Amino acid sequence: MKCKLCGQRAVLRLRAYNLSLCQDCLRDFVKRRVQKAIRDFRLLKKGEKVLVAVSGGKDSLSLWEILDGLGYDTIGLYIHLGIEGYSDRSLEKAKAFAQKKGLSLLVEDVREHFSGLGIPQLSKKDMRPPCSLCGMVKRYLMNKVACETDRTLATGHNLDDEAATLLGNVLDWKEGYLGRQAPRLEARDGFAPRVKPLVLCTEREMAAYAIASDIDYILEECPFSEGATSLFYKDVLNQIEERSPGTKLRFYQGFLKLQDRFRIEEPQLRPCSSCGYQTTGDLCNFCRLKEKAKKK
Ligand code: SF4
Ligand code: ZN
Predict the structure, then answer these.
(1) What is the domain range of residue 235?
(2) For residue 118, what is the domain's CATH number?
(3) Which one, out of 99, 158, 208, 275, has a CA that is 20 to 30 A from the CA of 201?
(4) Could you tell me if residue 9 is inside a domain?
(5) Would you state the pLDDT for residue 47?
(6) Pocket probe mutation, ligand 1, options 126, 225, 226, max atoms within 8 Å of Cβ
(7) Closest ligand 1 atom, CA of 135?
(8) How many angstroms is it from 207 CA to the middle of ligand 2?
(9) pTM
């Protein structure tokens, strides 16, 4: 199989585009897809200061490399979740990447905020599934650091992630979530702007990009991801994609054209009485969890 663009040995066939690409052309292809997303969805202005949320995985480290290469002023943020073994190993990957590229990495440790407890212990204490707590904690800390550093938060959500989330939101007709599932969310009082520059790149393209770019990323998945509904939705979408290449992209891009229909009133927010970040009640969920963690 030869690269359709330069004739070298192809490493990946992209049926959705009827293209086979070699390593170099694949890297250019992914970079152009990211630039297209930035342009089409007005994600970032030239030279914008960006905080890249990195997990040590292929998507976020590749995103960081691409944004840095495109000339954005980037720093990374790794959130240590206190998951035994997995968190340390993924932090090592993020640190090694930052060091190799000469980039700055900030580290937030969940245990420092919750009296020494990590996500697994907090989950037991709060009697909630780890992923629902983890999502809330990560969102809070990412936003906090983005506000403190006055940067736009960039996350490594790829097309597969967004299409799976969209499928879940559509199946349950979660109008509020559909209204907010955008590639860019503007800054609001107490919220930093958020962007997802990988929304036009599939998981498979990102894995191939990371390998072609010699990015050393963590292969193992978080132990709590097993059996996640989002993985089931991804699998279903991959089966559809297999029969009808390009479906994922059409599904997601078609949604973005219709998204205005799902705009809903933002809830009334006020500052949390403890941390000052915006919330609906008196105390935000993060501070409420902090209080719980303090109790023996
Ligand atoms: Fe957090 Fe792991 Fe769940 Fe992902 S799978 S939300 S990292 S606990
Ligand atoms: Zn708070």
Answers:
(1) 24-269
(2) 3.40.50.620
(3) 99
(4) no
(5) 86
(6) 225
(7) 6
(8) 37
(9) 0.96
